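Tokens as discussed.
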């Protein structure tokens, strides 16, 4: 049975300000800072754009777990997955399901860059880091062992087409 408590927003934020987000990476638990308004906005904006541009050709998962390996389960900000949606009703997405993975990073920039090695090892074909700190898009492609062979930097106003959808440039800023 659940117990119900009543709070105002200010009291709720004050009480739970220290609660962090957790990820399991190579058997270790990492806690990250709670997400702020810029991060929330960037994720929502990208989700809306991806849904509009890709429609039924992809499944968009927002801040959901990805089963990378028996000891790693990160929660990337956005996953562009192979359809149909119904295949994920009884299992979490796995590396072979991912067409594009997007991390939005402000306070988590170093942490998100460290995860690149895990994504490459798992064979994720393409990872984007929306770098809110420097207002850049970092594009990583072609995994090889624990790194990506190609790294590209895009500036605001430049759109990028994912490898899986070469004729669908996506504005990221």
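Sequence:
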């Amino acid at each position: 049975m659940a117990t119900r408590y009543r709070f105002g927003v200010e009291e709720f934020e004050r009480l739970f300000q220290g609660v962090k987000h957790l990820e399991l990476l190579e058997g270790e638990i990492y806690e990250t800072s709670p997400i702020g308004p810029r991060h929330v906005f960037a994720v929502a904006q990208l989700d809306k754009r991806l849904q509009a541009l890709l429609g039924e050709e992809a499944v968009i998962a927002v801040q959901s777990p990805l089963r990378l390996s028996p000891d790693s389960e990160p929660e990337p900000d956005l996953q562009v997955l192979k359809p149909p949606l119904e295949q994920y009703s009884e299992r979490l997405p796995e590396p072979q399901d991912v067409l594009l993975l997007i991390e939005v990073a402000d306070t988590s920039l170093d942490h998100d860059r460290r995860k690149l090695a895990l994504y490459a090892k798992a064979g994720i074909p393409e990872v984007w880091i929306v770098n809110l700190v420097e207002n850049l898009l970092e594009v990583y492609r072609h995994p090889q062992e624990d790194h990506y062979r190609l790294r590209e930097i895009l500036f605001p106003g430049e759109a990028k087409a994912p490898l899986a959808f070469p004729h669908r440039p996506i504005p990221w800023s």
